[in-house]
Amino acid sequence: MADLEDPPTLLQCCMDYICDNLDDLCFKVRTKDTGSLRLTFRQHDVFFHNELSEMFLSRLLEKGKVNDQVLTLLSCSDMFRLRRVRVRNTPVGLEGLRAILYNHKLIELDVSNTNVKRAASVLQLLYESGQDALQSLNVSGLQPHKQDLSEEGPFGNFEGLGAFATINRTLVSRLRNIRCLNVSHTNFDTPDLEMVASELPHLESLDISKTYVSSLTPLLQCKHRLKSLSTYGVSSVQGRDNWDEDEKHSTERVIAELSLLRHLDISTEETFSVSGTFFASQNQLKVNVDNLLCIPGVLPNLTSLDISGRDLSEGTLLSFLESHPQLVFLGVMMGPACFWDFIWDEEYEGFRKDLRVTGEGNEAQILEALRQYSERAVYVQKALYKLFGRTSGMEHPRVDVIKLVVQGMKNHCDAKTCLSRDLSDVVNLTLKAMEVFPNHQQLQKNALLTLCSDRILQEVRFDRYRAARLVMHCLCTHEDATMHRMAVAIISILAAKISTEQTALLGTQNYLQVKLLRIVKEKTEEQQVDITLKFTLSALWNLTDESPSTCTTFVENGGLELFMQILEVFPNESNLHTKVLGLINNIAEVRGLRKVLLREDFMDYLIAVRSWNNPTGEMVAYRSFHPFFPLLECYTTPAVQLWSVWAMQHVCTKNPDRYCPMLIEEGGEERVKRLATNPATAAEVRTLAELVIELLQDSKLPPRQRKLLKPADTPGSPEQE
Predict the structure, then answer these.
(1) CA distance linking residue 601 with residue 603, whole number of Å
(2) Which of 173, 375, 700, 703 pairs with 340 at a CA distance of 20 to 30 A?
(3) Mind listing the UniProt keywords for this protein, alphabetically (predicted)?
């Protein structure tokens, strides 16, 4: 019970209902000022106070429903009160952003990785809408493509690389209350840094990661107020590599003078070499970490330091940690420091248990890396690689691990670094990756490894038809024995979990049947009984269940001849016989195909059916008994009645809790009673029918009073083998 999450609150349920039914709850109106269309609620007396407004926006964001049109609904200040707007990683553009900024006074705005494209456009809108109370601004990732650089934007031609310098100082000074600024992954450069440092007098936190700043010297203007600085992967523009090398303004000296810093990130961007090892990208921020950390009294207020990918000596780091007992976080990913004794060995005398560390030295470091670097593709890839090597020793489900992996996947599902809020999120993101990269064999293989889990396939909520279709495509696209084994196993289970209509859509795909039958043919010719053959037979069995069109496709592709060959080649493999006869039974249920079964070799095989031993476990799983009812009326063919009643008796004996109520609810009890009392019924059929009636009567008694039924057996059904 400890792993179960609390049920959603009434408020959460209401929020979800509104988010999921916007089309029914809203309609479009044309504004008087601009004539543009916007959404509004059909009920006019709706009002969301500030907390509810921001909760509503957050839930829309989680559901992937935030776009320009939805923002026109939120722009109505008579219905909503917004102070913090976070729309990161959405298709929001300038029109949606304008609708918000002209109707709400914000203190925080996050438009990172949206369709706005230019950070300069955001600044212009902030200026025009009078957002002088803004304290936090995140424009990360707003970097125009090359083709956009020469376009005439709504606020003038954007020709330079800088995000801020193209706008005059009057505009930037209007935003003088900003305390937290994130311009990472943009074309922000040194002139921009000079302007920001001089025109934002309250700036305390600055993230310039993956930008084009060539000197940190401008930060000396805000050394008495800057508390957080991130420079991860800062690159100088080609031809502008003007890092300060003189002693007075060296990068180490500039950073050392920022004495109020509590957080400092000078980690490097790492990339893979051909051999798989890591190397630092060229033209990155040059920092001699040994020289920096050895400066007497350096950074006395620091509580968080990230030097991942940087070189330094063991003694330097040990001395720095001893002189900074207030440090609570240390990033040493992509380097040897994570393996030093005082960093990872809990038995070491100087080990700091209160220090959170990112690295590769142990599980704690790897999980901390996933927690801290969810937006760094290469770091996530490295951490997941190291984590994968440790998962084989995990005996129980680790919800904490799953959540961290999912977060990494959410941020990188559109990149090949995608590797694997709960298991449902894992599956959905995995399926999305399969759709984006259908021909990337290693990614598809990783996806199959994720999906090939009994718990996921049986218990987790996801679109099983979508999954089956994608796995089917994978099976038919990639020639890899391991992938084939996993794919047929997944299809065999999913085919029993989807609707009959969906099963027919899959099963009638001629290329799939050809592929499955080819696998069966190869295994039969090699006389090789392995898990791949068993799963393939199960897949065909389940795909043909209650699907006449799929049965027809199977027969037309020579499936019946192949299955008769299996009975001959493997005379003692009862497990294979079960699957073969199960599929042939599906064919027998199709009136137009019964004639193809009237063949001497098949009848010779079936003639000994009554001598077979009664199975000890449940050998089949049924969705419904309705297909059996017409068979009970075949008085001219007692063998058909015998098989039908035997099947009912079998499952009701082996799994009474499931099948007895099902048979009663579907009207089967009355049908079996009529069969048992009809004078035309054969004696053997009547005997079995009377046994089924006793089983159903027994199932209605309290468990302690039952005479015939025992607790349900739990062996795997054909769909689960």
Answers:
(1) 6
(2) 375
(3) Ubl conjugation pathway
How sure is the predictor about 577, in pLDDT bands with cuts at 50, 70 and 90?
Answer: confident
180-182 and 205-207 strand pairing:
parallel
Q: Show the domains of the chain with their CATH numbers.
A: 413-597 (1.25.10.10), 600-701 (no CATH)
Average of per-residue pLDDT across 412-441: 70
Q: For residue 139, what pLDDT is reported?
A: 93
Which residue has better confidence, 84 or 189? 84
Record the tokens describing residue 235, joined without a space. 């690159």
Q: Is the pTM of this model over 0.85?
A: no
What pLDDT score does 273 carry? 34
Distance CA 369, CA 374 (A): 8
Cα separation, 686 vs 642, whole angstroms: 9
**Distance set, CA 335 to CA 20, 252, 338, 358 (Å):** 46, 20, 7, 11
| Alpha carbon distance 19, 25 (integer Å) | 9
Alpha-carbon distance 481 to 478, whole Å? 9
Q: Which stretch of DSSP H or E encloses residue 365?
A: helix 363-372
**pLDDT at position 237:** 38
Kindly write down the DSSP assignment for every residue of 577-610, as one continuous string: HHHHHHHHHHHHTSGGGGGGG--HHHHHHHTTGG
- H or E element, residue 389: helix 377-391
Average the pLDDT over 439-449 and give the result: 87
Q: Return the beta strands (E) in 6-110 as ranges.
A: 26-30, 37-41, 84-86, 108-110
The pLDDT value given to residue 363: 86
